[in-house]
């Protein structure tokens, strides 16, 4: 136990850190240059680390971050008493290292401080707004456009002073910024295909839904002065536990309530399309490119889709974590076969990426027992994740005349997860999904016809997949096994 004697991490206790913990006091001329919407663990373990390293490489503090929470005040209560400082504990099997990050100079709560958030986005000294609000935070409808039937979106269109959605907060801030006219780069860091173009489209949709005299000029200014580069982000960042905080306290010599835990691996690919100056992220290891799409496809199809396969098959088999699922030889063999037989044939290697080497790292990263990434956590929001991660692989293989047996296994495991709702030991499996009610309705009823009913969900599947007899036959075959024995066979689905 840490005991009451340990002081809390603050600017004033940095000198109490134990040897071996890297920390750099915030630059004396630090000023807010980035507003980040959605300051959860992932941002603190990823973009904030790159930004701190970029500021160190530049020798200045002009890109400090104002982190904005979207709902809970928990992060504000963790970070504000610590002057924005927090630790990043990197863990691998038998190895751990730690650093203290000070890139986040201030934190704010969007529900409690809406005026502060809008004023910060409008501040000409701010050159970047970035976002990690998860796929569902973008409030898209089934057609990919802004869901104007969403009550929170409708409310944001009516109340400029207290927007509750990320898109509303961004547009209302841009509305005020347009008075000064300072250009701005808006960087989505969420797992959406072409996330920059998606975000630009949602902003345009919001503007179009405003009264013409208000939204028209704003849309014109945004088109001229704002850039939305696409990005690809990668780092596994599980939820921090009390045990993690105890371990970090022993390592740091101070108590850190804002600690984040991550694997050593990190990657950031950014489209080089900026409205003005941005941090020198490339000097911190980020890749700047004219086209993010090939990098994005590699990550989505090899890493994320395999993650989903292991999450659903692992959860059904009763494994609490991804690392435990990977240690099941049958599940690991299914994941390997999926990558080799179905995912890799759909990919073209981008510059600097060796696909064979990348594929070899995937299961090693997943097998890291120190991360304790929960299968049910990865299984969340399947109706949003699978259309991006898995369904493009199924379409590509079917069009090529191949039989995507292992990709179909991943999809069938999701359907079985929804339909069964319990693992092999009878323990309940949570269905955390924006379409949870629709999914349960489609999954209800007899086992026969389950695949057909699920494929009939237009919010998830297009006509091509819905009408594929070959896909439906493969799903039926897998579902017979998954809903019986639950665990798939490595020798063949």
What brief labels describe this structure?
493 residues; N-(1-d-carboxylethyl)-l-norvaline Dehydrogenase, domain 2; 4-stranded mixed beta sheet; alpha/beta; disordered C terminus; 6-stranded parallel beta sheet; Rossmann fold
Briefly say what this structure is:
It contains 21 helices and 13 strands.
In words, what does this structure look like?
With 493 residues, the chain is an alpha/beta fold. The protein folds into two domains: 279 residues, Rossmann fold, CATH 3.40.50.720; 190 residues, N-(1-d-carboxylethyl)-l-norvaline Dehydrogenase, domain 2 (Orthogonal Bundle). It is 44% helix and 12% strand. The strands form three sheets. Strands 6-3-2-7-8-9 form a six-stranded parallel β-sheet, with helices on both faces. A four-stranded mixed β-sheet has the order 1-5-4-11, with helices on both faces. A hairpin with a 2-residue loop joins strand 4 and strand 5. Helix 10 packs across helix 15 and helix 17 packs across helix 21. The radius of gyration is 23 Å and the shape is globular. The C terminus is likely disordered.
Class based on secondary structure composition and strand pairing? alpha/beta
Look up the CATH topology of the largest domain.
Rossmann fold
Total of helices: 21
CATH domain class name of the largest domain: Alpha Beta
* CATH homology superfamily of the largest domain: NAD(P)-binding Rossmann-like Domain
Q: Low-confidence spans: pLDDT under 50, at least 5 residues?
A: 485-493
Over all CA atoms, what is the radius of gyration?
A: 23 Å
Head-to-tail CA distance between termini: 47 Å
The global form is globular
Helix content: 40-55%
Mean of residue pLDDT? 94
Largest sheet, in brief, is: 6 strands, parallel
Q: How many distinct beta strands?
A: 13
